[in-house]
Amino acid sequence: MTESMRTELIKQLKTEVQNNADLTKLSDEQLGLLVERTLEDKIKWAQQNNPQAYSELSSLNFREKKLITSSVYQAIRGLGVLGTIIKDPDVTEVMINGYKDIFVEKAGKLIELTEHFESSRELEIIINKFVSQAGRQVSQSDPIVDTRLEDGSRVNVVMPPVALNGPIVTIRRFSKDPMTVEKLIGYGSITPEVAHVLKLLVECKYNVFVSGGTGSGKTTFLNALSNFIPSDERVITIEDSAELQIKNIRNLVRLETKNAGPDGKGAITIRDLIKSALRMRPERIVVGEVRGAEALDMLQAMNTGHDGSLSTGHANSTKDMLSRLETMVLQGADGLPLEAIRQQISSAIDIIIHLSRLRDKSRKTVEIVEVLHYDTERRQIVINPLYEFRENDNSSRTKVIGQLTRTANAMQNVEKLRNAGIDLVI
Question: Are 20 and 118 members of one domain?
Fold first, then answer.
C-alpha cells in the first residue's frame, strides 16, 4: 500500500469511528477495539463491493494493520500524527514547522516525513492537550512555552502570532533507560580513563559545570554524572521542565518551574527554586540548565557549603562559558563589580566539562578544565587544562595536558584522588 493510500485510509477510519455516538463513553481499550473492528469491517465491505480496494487492503500484514489502527487511535484520543512519530524509538528529535512540515532526527540525520496533520486547528488541539496535561498553558497572549510529554520528552512550543507559519513544536527525546557513563564510553563520547577521573571528582564533591552548544548532549551527560553521586546523599534537582533521570538516589527532591497564570501572577522561577532548595537541607543541588539571573544564586549555593553541585549552560568553549556566566550574573545583580563576579565564579566552580557535536554528528567531550583562582593583577580567571580532544588527531590515546592542582578545601576523600593518580598523564 502506498503512503498516500495509507493516509487516506487512516482519514476514512478516523471519520467513521468519530461518527460513533458513544465515542466519549468508551474506555481506551474499547476505543482501540472499535478502531480494529472498523478496519476489519472495511476490508469485508471491500471484498464484496470493491475488488480493487480489497486487493490493497488484503495485502496489509499484521504490523501494517497495527500501525494504521494506532494512527487512528492517536488521532482521536492521543497526539495524532505526533503520537505515531514518538513511538519510534530511533527518533531523537521532532521538529514540526506548521501542520504540513514535519522533520525528525534519526542517527544524527534530519529526515522530512510525508505524514502531516490535517489542519493547523488539529495541531493546535494536540498542543493544548499535552501542554495542559503538564499543568501549563499556551495562547496567543502567551505564545511560548517549555513543557514535557508524559514520557519525559522535552518540548518547546511557539504559537502564532509569534510563529508566522503556524504552530511550531520542537521535541527532544530521551531514552527510557537512564544514560550511564558505560554507555557514553560505548558511544565513544569519553574514554574509560576520563570516566574514571570524573567519577572521582563527583564522589569527592567537586562542583562541576557542563557546557556545550544546542544538541551537544549536556543533559544526557549530566544524567550520566549523577550516577556517580553516592546513594546516601540528599539531592535536589531544579529544572525548567523535569527531564533528568536520576535513579540511584533515594533521598531525591525534584523541583520544576511554573509559568505565570493568565493574570500574569504565580510564576515560580529557577531563582525561586534555588532559594527554596537551600532551606531543604540539600547535600547537592543539580540545576538542569543555567540561562540567566539564576546563575548568581547557583554560584552562591556552591559557595555556601553545597559542594558537589552540578549544572549545565550553553557556550562554545570552557572560556566562553566563564564569560557567559559573568553576563548571566550581571542580569541578576546589575552593578556588581566584575572583579567580584569573577572571584565568585572562580571560588564556586571547580571543573568545567565542554561537549561538542562534531561534523560526523557524534557527540564528544572535547575539553575539561580546572578553575583555579582569580588573578587580581591580570584581572582574569586562571584555568588549568586537564583534557583536550583533538578531532583530527589519528591517535586514539587520551590527551591529558595538565594535572589537577587546586586545593580541595572542605572536600571529602581528597586522599582518594591522590591515591587514584588523578594527576597521571595517560
Answer: no
**Residue 332 exposed, middle or buried by CB count within 10 Å (0-12, 13-18, 19+):** middle
Q: pLDDT tens for residues 161-187?
A: 999 989 999 998 877 677 788 888 888
159 domain-assigned? yes
CA distances from 292 to 105, 298, 424 (A): 29, 11, 37
Maximum alpha-carbon separation in the chain: 91
The burial class, CB within 10 Å (0-12 / 13-18 / 19+), for 43 is middle
**pLDDT tens across 330-348, in order?**
987 878 899 999 999 999 9
Where a domain ends, among 49, 77, 105? 77
Burial class, 172, CB count within 10 angstroms (exposed 0-12 / middle 13-18 / buried 19+): buried
Indicate if 232 and 327 belong to the same structural domain: yes
Same domain membership, residue 215 and residue 147 = no
Which one-letter amino acid corresponds to residue 64?
Answer: E
Q: Output 195 or 334, whichever has higher pLDDT.
A: 195
